[in-house]
Amino acid sequence: MLTQIGGKPESDFSDPLGLLSDCHQRIRYFLGVLISVCEQARVNQLTVDQRTGLEKALWYFREAGPRHTADEEKSLFPLLRAKNIPRVLRALEKVDRLEADHRQAEVDHDDVDTIGRRWLSDGSLSKEDLRQMKVLLSNLMALYKRHLVVEEAEIFVLADGVLSDGEKDLVGREMAARRGILRR
């Protein structure tokens, strides 16, 4: 994603909670791209810019999205579950709901990907496929609107307060390894 002049620089693996939040910005961005392409193109032929946007957004959710989910579910959430701290124990019910959201988002993104790839290969989209794509994207927008706020305002803040520097470093190392990046 392009860096905005004067904006907050993107985090790196030494700040895994910041990196997770940065990823949320990319989720919002690419979901917006998908919605915009559907609104602009409708069932018509895609312009070059629409095709490029659709390809990049589909790739993002197909490739990067699962790594982000794994970052949370395999690296961050288990460390929180291991804490026997009352405020963490109270938050675990929300973590369970977040994981359920991940499962629903995966199903919806798979369907969006199927329709989107068909759109790219056929060059146009049936009215039924467009209607289905809009329903799926609307569902994802509603899910993410709630989901990302809970993660950013509650779970990441909680994790920042209860995880040691070593645990945060471990999360960052696991995130890097998922992407084939070795950290010292």
Number of domains in the coordinates? 1
Largest sheet: number of strands, sense, barrel closure? none
Number of distinct beta strands: 0
The residue-averaged pLDDT reads 94
Bin the strand percentage: under 5%
Residues in helices, as a percent range: over 70%
Order of helices and strands: HHHHH
Report the structural category: mainly alpha
From the alpha carbons, calculate the radius of gyration and give it in angstroms.
18 Å
Q: Could you name the ranges where pLDDT drops below 50 across 5 or more consecutive residues?
A: none
CATH topology: Four Helix Bundle (Hemerythrin (Met), subunit A)
How far is the N terminus from the C terminus? Answer: 25 Å
Q: Count up the helices.
A: 5
Describe the overall structure.
With 184 residues, this protein is mainly α. It has a single domain (16-178), classed as nmb1532 protein domain like (Four Helix Bundle (Hemerythrin (Met), subunit A)). The chain has five helices and no strands. Helix 1 runs antiparallel to helix 2 and helix 2 runs antiparallel to helix 5. The radius of gyration is 18 Å and the shape is elongated.
